[in-house]
Structure prediction request, 196 residues.
Amino acid sequence: MGSFDRSKRRLFFAVASIGVFIILANVLILSGADVRSRIDKIPIPGKQQKPPRPGASNASLPKFSTWLDDNNLDNFQEPIDSHPISTLMKDADETWMEYDETRSMTFKETVSKYRRRYGRHPPPGFKDWYQFARDRNAHNIDDFEQIMDDLRPFWAVEPQVIRSLAARMWEKSEDGIAGIHIRDHKVVKQSNQSWR
Prediction:
């Protein structure tokens, strides 16, 4: 039984010796010529660079190309992130920056932008609304897309039809529509008061 243990030891010693030899060979061959000088050339932010050691370069040893093209860190580019979220985030940032740079800063700019974008004059009371928005530091004073989209279907209906429907909608309380009648800036009648 003692001879069996001895053969196991010999086998283990042989495999370990081969493994150590392979590791040492890889370290010596694949690491390139002067590893220490390469490490010294890597820039570290906030740390003063050491001057190169005399005799650090050994021209007799072969130089292997690296993925940084022989230590040229100046031409290093960031990897391209091809994930769809990254693209969407970048596009959103660019759109926001474009909007933020072109938003109006004065009432005159706001009116001219409104006329240019919607093809008509701003509604009555626009100056009061503008002052109200500015007093409250509103950032977005040029974007009326949502309300324009909401009102777009009503442009096809004659104004007297809309007035007629609006005047009679509140008459049936079971429809759940409330009406407030305002005359001379005062509420004169309120229907369906229990609504909300």
